[in-house]
Amino acid sequence: MNDKLGRRGFFERLKLGALALAGVGSGACVASVRRDPYAIDKEPVPGTTGWRAGEERSVLTTCGQCPAACGLRTRVVEARAVKLDGNPDSPVNRGGIGPKGQAGLQVLYHPDRIRGPVKRIGARGSADWKPVSWEDALAEIAAKLHRLRADGTPESLVVVDGQTRGLMHELWGRFLTAYGSPNHIGHESTGFGGKRLAVAYMQGGSDLPAYDWEQTGYVLGLGTSLFESWCQTMHLMRASSHLRHNIPGRRVKFVHVSPRLSRTSSRADEWVPINPATYGAFALGLAHVLCRDGLHDATFVRDHTFGFEDWTDDKGERHRGFRALVEQYDPAKVAALTGVPKETTERVAREMAAFRPAIVVADGSAAAASNGLGTAMSIHALNALLGNLERPGGMLMQRRAPLAAWAPEVIDQAARAGLASPRIDGAGTPARPLAHTFVQALPEAILSGSPYPAKALFLYYSNPIFTKPDGKRWKEALEKVPLVVSFSPFADESSLWADYVLPDHTYLERWEPVEPAPSRGFPALALRQPVVAPLYHTAHTGDVVLKLAQALGGSVADALPWKDFREASEIRLAGLVKKETTSVETPPDDVEALIEAMQTKGGWWNEVARYEDWAAGFQTPSGKFEFYSRAIAKRLETLFPKREDLLARLAAAGQANVNAPDDLCLPTWSPPRLEGDPRSFPLVLLPFRAVNYAEGGVRHIPWLVELPIARGNGWREHVEMNPKDAMLLGLGEKDEVIVESPAGAGHFRLRLYAGVRPGTLALPLGHGAWPPGPNDPPGSYSLIVNHSDPWAGILAIQGTRVRVRKAATT
Amino acid sequence: MSTLNEDERGPEEGATASATPGQPRRSALLALATTSVALTVRAALAGSEEQAKKPPEANAVTAGSRKRRWGMVIDLDRCTGCGGCVVACQSENNVAPTGPEMSDKTRGIYWMDLLPMSKGTEYPDLSETVLPVPCMHCDDPPCVKVCPVGATYQTDEGITAQVWDRCIGCRYCQVACPYARRHFNWVEPSFPASARSQLNPDVALRPKGVVEKCTFCQHKIRAVTERARVDETELHDKDFQHLPACAQACPAKAITFGDLNDTSSEVSRLSKSPRAFRLLEELGTRPKVTYLRETKWQD
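ok -> structure tokens follow
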């Protein structure tokens, strides 16, 4: 060391010191010098291990503010994380990072984090907790779970899991299977469920699709907040920048269809205003023009699709094809439904066909209506008509990272009996035949005790009182469940109602491999690693699940035999060893080397595009894209073996005139159901998620609350109204108003914005009181009437009428 | 499959940069006229005889020297208005959230702000653009001239900097700045005890009663420059292109930073694009932040 510290080095250091001093005066001091090459022993930083004064490190990890899984490069100074930057190597964000990602520091260092496991001693909602040790908390919970299994009612354990994919999601699934409960309840039905179901039923697979943005020729977005809360917003921003300026001689047109002039529509080349929840009709209108004028990709349709022309089944029954179906949707008729002039529909259809490959894209919010599945299928069908599937510049089936499997589970008799029970939310039963999950039915199921009582409820990445309609009913339901456990790091609304809170680490303190939400189709697995040691007495929920399994013993313990989540993950990661990859030069030889490589690059990925792999792209009974979904037909046949049953079910849903089952298997249009009498509730409520909607909402992260988009209103729940409507109602900017819907009422601040469609009221979600109290008025989700697509269980977020009046001045 | 490289740029700027030199959009005459007016005013106000004697351009370009003159280009056609730059700036520069009350009075502090610019008032015939606005770091900064205590000054690299401790909170600079890029601390910046850990040690905190502003992340420029000097390595344009926190974060790579005196730098090239314009150029402040936009800009 001293050899290096020659005369020159000594003077350099003196100069640096002088510079640092000078910096104080100018307000911006260059104090810490990174990786000082002339380092002398500096004093250790108190309260840390291995940190020296002024020492800086750069740690790669993965963001957890949304499912996109952007790569992060964290600047850590003296064991404190001081800045989150984008990881330039990450194929998701390539060094860029949005507002949510950077605000992660306010999650990590949030003053309201729960510092260790707690047990409720007061009334539910009172936050009257006492700290317990991890050992005691786990022993008590395990004893209760053991009792449920011993009583032969393992199905009464319900896990509401906010993750939709990834190892934690799979770990919960494995735990529940071993334990014997079918109730692994996801959130898709209140999020992007419609889109996922459309892809699953028409194309197969269980994932959201990916898009080949960089090579596309035209983008039509339907209701999709591509630049706000799309599941791959960061990648898309980069892609749009590329499409506009980086391709010589070409500038890709982006058309955006939505009722409100959103940030996304204002960034589009053309904004097409539309009536709420009528995207399906518009899509069928486009399909009509494509088919009528022969603009569709006839070869692709012939070779790779099923159900385009009329067809006859094995029993000799005639079925209508998609071409015949769209005949009735001529643009003039569509104009009456959607408010989009017929000339626009004609032109957009011609443009789409002319600038192929085109991408037609929608997200969950477009399909979040009572006609959700039909809408999502109609939109997806356009991609097939244009021959965009599995082609360069089109829509791709997301390829998964080739993880190894865990050893098959061996389950015992008790588990088998439990798994044979129907799901408590009714998904996949005659109640919601086409749903994969139906979380918004839980409060009624729990309160009615039907099909059976819920005796234990776990909330992982889930705060239903705040983020689901019927917050009040959720409170009542949680009240009724004897054991409620939350894994939230924060004392959020639902955690206040829990018996135990077993706080998870935040994502910046956790080790876990994360699969990014589908983006460009190639397989990727990002790595999350702690950027600082856990600040509090929290525990990785993965480890907690494994400990619970061990405490339960028997076949449950055998199914989850690993000592911690990392060991469980390493078994899966073994599948990536020696596999082709572009993240590092040579594929690692063993798991240890693989993890080492993932830690230095931010993850594992194989950035190689695969096109026209039809077997991987179409995992359907026919091996083709299905305009007529045979998967739906089969499901209906299984659930309703007799035709009368199906007709009765249709009648119950108020759809007696629907031609079953064909209309349910095809992308059909039905008018959206809007709850509330138009005479007393004149405005249609349009809830949306703005760019600052992070994991858990907006309200608890000050930087996001104060993001300039809300112009000083971020701390308040606010609604946006067209100035003309406001004038008619005698309302003005910043007025305090009461918004009432058939489901409830709330106090809001009014903002006037000419981009709001007259006759609608726009509601940015995620704002509200923080920290929450038990007697807080219900949040903005409680305005939404809890009704859904009668077949697929997709929550009709666009499905409520409201009225607005001035609040009494205090 | 094409991959997106942050350094990729379209052919447009490259092809046209040499074709359209000099003043891009605003009348060069007007700019010249206003500059000389401003010059006289400055000479009278500040009494800085030595500086005033120099011809207008001499301030910026010292002939023959390799002195840097920092500038920024913001491409509005790439920007999606996400606000990544805003939070990046707040995080890097220890800007405290101001809380509900101050926020309500629009007294939030945003060194980098996002201003909505809407056109039209009748649905659906309207459009909206979001304008990211950092300090313009004018070559002829009005704020510097009015500061009675010399707290704010222009560095020899063209950055409008400020010594926080010297500010007396008179807010003259706030009034003088035509871009409203100066922010007053109405309340003591508050960081909860747990959040103090996330403070950047490189940037001093500003107390209540002090005006603060964007520094072009001067501390980062210094760190990089100092590092290169110690390591005896050469610095290139690309080392600076995305150096300020806002530019580094931008997911669409809409913000480019660099030396305007280096004619080969990206920022010089882009600032001569036919799409380029600057805000309120007619005031003669000679802002060093340039915007790019395809369609005509209307104030």
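The longest helix of chain A spans residues 7-25.
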